[in-house]
Amino acid sequence: MIKACKAVFLLEGKVLDLQNVVDSRVEWTEEGCSFRFEAKEDFTISEFFIDIEFVDQIVLWRYLDYTWKRPGNDRLVANVHSPKILKLQSGLNVAATGTSGCWEYQPGSGHLRWFFYHPMLSPTMVYDQIDQRIFLRKQQITKGTVINNGLIAGKGKAEEWARTPLGFVPVVCFTDHSDFDTKANLEVQRALFSSLGIKVTKGFFLYDYTHKAANASFESEESRQELIDWDNEGNELAYHALSQSYRGNKSEDEFKTFESPKEINPVTCYIDHGFHPYNYTKQKLGEWNSWYTHMSEKGIRLIWNYLDAGEGNLYTVNQLNPHGFTLNCLKKSSQYFNSKGKKRSPKNELRNFLMYGVPEDILRTSKFLKGSLGAVKSKPGFKSIRGLAGDLTSLAKRLLSPKTIKEINKRRIEIFEINRFGTVFFKACNQKETDIQVFQTLSVRDFDIVFSEEALNRLQDESGLMIAHTYFAYTGENHEGRLFKGDSDDLREEAKAGLERLGEKIQKGQIWNPKISELAGFFKKFESITYIKEGEDLKISCFDGIKRSIE
Length: 551
Fold this sequence. Notes:
Largest sheet: 7 strands, antiparallel
Radius of gyration: 24 Å
Strand content: 25-35%
Helix content: 25-40%
CATH architecture of the largest domain: Alpha-Beta Barrel
Number of strands: 29
Shape: globular
CATH class of the largest domain: Alpha Beta
Oligomer: single chain
């Protein structure tokens, strides 16, 4: 079955010789293979993968939408959240014995590449002193770490498992950020979602300190009961940092001593907010151990990585599927909805271009430019105009360099690096004695489009998943598909209609709508799934969820 098998360890692009550092065992027969790698001491890597060449060609790949795909020029993937099954030209079905790692089909060679470590399997970054994103490109592997998996093959049927307790249906999970919440609009939001049967993981501020005129927090007597009501109605509360604004030592003391309020269910999820120095993404890159320990002691089991897989639209509505996450697909979605009367400002395409289509230093320069424009508007004069001119010149030089132009042209059609593997949950990097999970989201700012009939149909067709990063209470006109009208507490009818459409599908059992901790708990079950061989059939073991046989 297997012609060749090679394990590769990389550090910043260079192949490492770890024969004296890793105890390895790889065995294969005509019916499958098994491998085991154990770290004999601590070491650092960027990537670890196994390249597998089969005797026969891979002719079908069980894709994340539970359909067979014929391999071509695309890099097909199968991450932890999807069954790893393929079919060879000989008629053999091949399955991974366990779910760890991510399969990726290599179009050039036709090989199977099985990743166990890669920066984009666990996308992690911090903000530096000038708020530039610095991504973690290597990980510490501790002594005793074991990677153990393999392949089995059979001529009969293979089973696949469902990602939800309802079966082979899609998932919509809301993680809402509380930046613009007030007691009044919280009441409107809660009434809406309660009437539609939609559950939400609602970010909240534990403490009341804010620079805004209106705010909602658990510390405030005015809004505390409203937040308790959210919890009592079956929603989930998650910390959004601990306060709207930061106040130096006082905020640091609050971070050291905070406790989950006794009036609500224990809070187990923490979502970074702003650039508070105690945030996960403001720690020193790679050195989170004391932060993990502190948060684990406070009951935190789940954190957000401050990253969106992309911007929600027709083609990205399923964040499991990397192939919709390109600038060309974003443009295609805009053109389609423009033709349907949902015309959006060109500023949206500019934002997407800067977020996903340019190198990180240009994104940072564009943010400086935005600040300079604001300075000219608020304090017009020679100094502010000179600052704006300098930022414009700097941005133009970077954009027009041959290297940047080549990179931009490449990014137009390439899948966003951040969603190369369709990552959803992963263990937070460089943990030693804790077990905190991280989740990645989809930015949802246009409820009209993301919950349109077309988008929801696509989500259902792909049995997809969306962990929506939302700001329900935001009223700025730059979010044209927002929930609320202007600066009022009145709902926009188009957005409401989209959520009603979603709610109806949830009530019919056509979409699963878990809270984030509920979703993480169900996905955790996938880690224990194994495949065994019964006769010529490949059967699922160690899973109490829904499964079915495929030819």
